Amino acid sequence: MSVPAFIHLPHPNLIADDVRAAAIADPVFGRVFTDHMVSIRYTEGQGWHDAQVMPRGPLSLDPATAVLHYAQEIFEGLKAYRLDDGSMALFRVEANAARFNASARRMAMAELPEDLFIAAVKEAVAADAHWFPPVDGGALYLRPFMFASEVFLGVKPAAEYQFLVITSPVGNYFKSGAPAISLWVSEDYTRAAPGGTGAAKCGGNYASSLVAQREAIANGHDQVVFLDAAEHRWIEELGGMNMFFVFDDGSIVTPPLTGTILPGITRDTIITLARDAGLTVREEPYAIDQWQADAESGKLTESFACGTAAVVTPVGKVTRGESSFTIGAGGPGQVTTKLKDKLVDIQRGRAADPHGWVTRL
């Protein structure tokens, strides 16, 4: 379909320059938001319509709005980066658009044409580019999301949806200052099961992980790591990040995409960059018992998590019940650091982009 023209609604009360400058000086991740948002509506029989760039503000929802009862909701997360020449760029936005529709199919929701998804993201960046934070790791975090907006009570796919994009200036995801994060292995909870929604980026997956994440925090750790639902043996992912394991022979393992973990775009990027560098990457199951044994023997030298928000984050310590083990020296390893640096350099336009991942704005 052709991309409809976006209507730009005037903003009656833009945030003052000095207030904005203070807000973006050191933004806490996901707490600061810009002036505008993008909205597009879908009606069965009519398709997508009413594409608008509008003042960011509260949504008015009827108490019987379908999403509040049946949880038809999906989202994406991506960043706009400032390049060294002052321009801005998106990273692998086409992959976000494709994954958004994969999530929509799994949740029986209307698919948004990929060109329209990308156009909406570009409109959001253009409207609030002056909100880019001048901090280390600074970016504009973009949150496209869609929910069932039809007003009805009944278990069926909705006939109306609203798609929105909101923007948040962000710095680094973890601010603890520690060289690596620590993980708590969940013994009692699983994130997803075969045949479920683990591969979809829907809110329910994250809601069900929060009790385990709270348990991890209560036990002094940064994140929770989930095991598979069937055997409670195989490592799957964190509450919001994919996992990688680096061995003393330079090879790398990451859990396979079997429908129970999110097909992370950063995950796919890391696999590609590692293989470009001549490293062997295996997508295969890796057991929690083996993780501990390999770490204690020295066979495993590094572990790291990755995702759009946190980029590449070293794992230093893992606790499972009463036992704990340390990965390598407990800080960032050489392979982790090199892969992160390579990824960030491409995102920021400092390195060649042989795969065409960067979309300049």
Automatic annotation (TrEMBL):
Amino-acid biosynthesis as UniProt keyword: yes
InterPro entries: Aminotrans_IV, Aminotrans_IV_CS, Aminotransferase-like, B_amino_transII, BCAT-like_C, BCAT-like_N, BCAT_family
Cofactor(s) annotated in UniProt: pyridoxal 5'-phosphate
Domain of life of the native organism: Bacteria
E.C. numbers: 2.6.1.42
Keywords from the UniProt entry: Amino-acid biosynthesis, Aminotransferase, Branched-chain amino acid biosynthesis, Pyridoxal phosphate, Transferase
Reactions that this protein is recorded to catalyse: L-isoleucine + 2-oxoglutarate = (S)-3-methyl-2-oxopentanoate + L-glutamate; L-leucine + 2-oxoglutarate = 4-methyl-2-oxopentanoate + L-glutamate; L-valine + 2-oxoglutarate = 3-methyl-2-oxobutanoate + L-glutamate
Function: Acts on leucine, isoleucine and valine.
UniProt-recorded name of the protein: Branched-chain-amino-acid aminotransferase
Organism of derivation: Sphingopyxis fribergensis
